Amino acid sequence: MAQNLAHIRNFSIIAHIDHGKSTLADRMLEITNTIPARKMQEQVLDSMELEREKGITIKMRPVRMEHSLNGEKFILNLIDTPGHIDFFYEVSRALKAVEGSILLVDSTQGVQAQTLTTLQMARDAGLVIIPVLSKVDSPLARIKEIKQEVMTLLGCAEDDIFETSGKTGAGVKELLDALITRIPPPVAEYANTTSTRSLIFDFQYSNHKGVIVYVRVLDGSISKHDLLLFSVADEKFTALEVGVFTPDEEPRDSIVAGEIGYIVTGIKKPGIASVGDTVTTLKNPLPALAGYMSPSPVVWASIYPEDAGDFDLLRQALGKLRLSDSSFTYEEESSGSLGRGFRCGFLGLLHLEIITERLKREFRLELVIATPSITYEVHYKNGKSEMVYSPSLFPDAGNFEKVLEPWVKLKIMSPAEYVGGILQLLYEHEGEIGDSETFGDGRTTLAIRMPLRELMRNFFDELKSVSSGFASLSYEFDGMRVADVARMDILVAEEPVEAFCRVVAVRRAQDEAEKAVTRLHSILPRQMFTTKIQAKCLGRIMSSETLSAFRKDVTQHMYGGDITRKMKLREKQKKGKKKMEARGRGKVNIPHETFLKMMKGN
Description:
- The chain is of the alpha+beta class.
- The strands form 6 sheets. An 8-stranded antiparallel beta sheet has the order 11-10-16-7-8-15-12-13. The protein has a 6-stranded mixed beta sheet with strand order 2-3-1-4-5-6, with helices on both faces. Strands 21, 22, 23, 24, 25 and 26 form a 6-stranded antiparallel beta sheet that branches.
- Helix 8 crosses helix 9 (349-363).
């Protein structure tokens, strides 16, 4: 056991999106001959089609490599982690499963805000940090300036920073050697006991095998047929198979302390396995690891099938996705205009996009997705309070004492020349500006507090626009504060359309009302009668447009004759339209395409 531990090195890679993490992992797999050259492809650890298309890491893929140094063979376990802030909890659990981490910085871009956030998590976990520059072969590389940034950030010497190219493989062999010499081997806390304890840092679902948990064995060993227990979920199961990643699943007789591997549980119920839970033996259980948390959704959206007949298929699809991703939630709801659907909670906007894309691609579903919203805590005048997840359930103005909404702490990094435009953007999004400091080569770091509602109001895209793509940000939650917001209803033919309802800031209510009405007026098909489109907020109509009726030429078959004949037909048509309008309120035909265009805003 001791020899195994001494020859194991567990590490992860910390990097901002598109800093070359997956490409560096590819070169490591190639140099260590983990994958034969004939099977090599780009982004080996990013197995999902969506990951390859977007060039980002969504689900972590661990891999076991073997590398020799001074005649000794070592096992290197890499846990690749998501780089996006939506998945910070998954990153924190992955960091708990390793002893060291590569800090990968793009030599053409420098240190980014999200990198700082993850780096602090790694430091708090006590990991050994190895600084590495990527893309040093690029003609745009600013190696000297970026090295200075990293030295300032870590307080390290210039010689401690490795220069690599995932494209050419330069410097990767030296980095593999450094992983062995700099990162300490794992240590078992309960080395003298026969008990077992493992940390779950990810899991997958297989139709044939059930839930497969990815674990770092901290104490003891796990063998096939062992009786095991999920500590937090308090669910017992039998290990149907255990093994390691090469990077495909390779069955073994057992996995031991210090190793990273997988356990086939056979469980086919959602909500049992979760990231951060502890797997221990049923006979001699060890205490669960500290730091477990149940990820809480922060963004909510309603998802409906375009075809009402696909409702059961959508339910099955959500159930299957939840088996491999316990961080999103869903519950059934119904809408008068959209029919039956599901109210879903997500970790963030990227998480929402990933789940909906997987529903479309993997299950071939056509969906209508309502505008994402957040959770509000409403306090009523009678002393009662409730959490409101849906804008349509938000009370009318004057029916409550106060409303609390979630706020976030932002860290924005940008070249100094764009700070003026960013400050103006922050004012428009109710941002409170805190301390600022100069970082590296003429870049500024801003500390901001802002309502989550405003962060979701296209802030990411607008920040990239005003900074020409050079600014980056990270955020964390900062508690609840009193909000000055109100519900805005969109009325079509004097009937509210639930799917268009939203909660808006009172200061922006007039502007939001005019935009929504103008938008719907431009995309709603004309009806057989004149249709009013209105926005109602704060107890009054704030904006109104009239959609003219679709007119059929009822006299096209007539040639010549007295004009009064044509006038009689047109009068008859006018009376018919009045009858339709009287009977047809609330029954305007709103196509699904209109809902989609309103949700997307384009």
